[in-house]
What we know:
Blueprint: H1 2-33, H2 52-63, H3 74-93, H4 95-100, H5 103-127, H6 144-161, H7 164-184, H8 199-217, H9 225-246, H10 259-282, H11 290-296, H12 299-309, H13 312-324, H14 332-354
Amino acid sequence: LVSLDALRGFDMFWIISGEGIFHGLADGVKQGNGLIRNPDDWTISSNESLSLMERIVIEISNQLHHSPWNGFTFYDLIFPLFIFISGISMPFSYQKYLDEKTSSASKKVYFALIKRTLTLIILGVIVNGLFKLDGYDHTRFASVLGRIGLASFFAAVIYLNFTLSKQVVWFISILFVYYILMLLVPVPGFGAGVFTPETIPAICSAMLGIFTGTFIKNDSLKFSAEKKAGIILLAGILSIILGLIWSLVFPINKMMWTSSFVLFSGGWSMILFAFFYFIIDVKAFKKWSVPLVWIGTNSILIYVCAHGFFNFESTSQFIFGGLIRLIPRDYQQAGMWTGVLLIQLFFLRFFYQKKWFLKI
Length: 360
């Protein structure tokens, strides 16, 4: 599915350079209009004197910050969307194993699963600064890549060993057991430390992707591709509604990855996938998505480079510094990040043409 690579690229775009561009533009609007930034959630207050475009820039920038606690922003969607996408690919990736189900095939698929999970965990720790050698106390072992690896691993184990109906039972059980634990298990003070069990319900974010991928791949249902896109869209809307209802007693909270957050973010993930699938794979309108495909086919590589291995900002200043200085001072940060995006796309396009992909 080309749409899957494009959606993955769209998701990754925001955290490798997109947020920098829009924060830079918003800071320019803020400086030029004397706006105030909220110190609690980093959002910028708008006012009626701004043009429509300036208001849009401010709103996009405000959406590119995590909610301080309860609530939801677009930035809160990026992580669960990536996990959701990894789930969609599983019915396609593991079809050969499910067709064979031999002992040798089983060993091969589980070895690959374990290898992928450990690789993502190690890469995540490296991105967190392992090579700074600051000592055990200053090394953060929990990471975005690690959680993606663990959530995808357990979701894959459930997918490979249970029928669809039992997968649904697992999905519902995990969400409700997590809710009951959060509701009924007392935690006076903070105990021995801060615990982050959010990887457990993140499994369900991957499983929503598995259900979506299974539905797309299933030809026995006799649904047209257009109808499948429409059904996924409706399923996404239903999931959002269920998440909102559950949030009345179990708030939407990314930090805790609450069950309502799983349903709410999963609903938006389904809606986005339905849009990309319909436009790109069903209607074959693909040209606009080519840069996103470059990003999506090497998403782990560009993430690791942008967040640990390569200083794109300094490179942008070195290459485009003269041009950036021609931009009004308030908007030079946006210019620098636009240069970052151009450099990233240059290398990703080269890798794509050479078919050099970091596959984990």
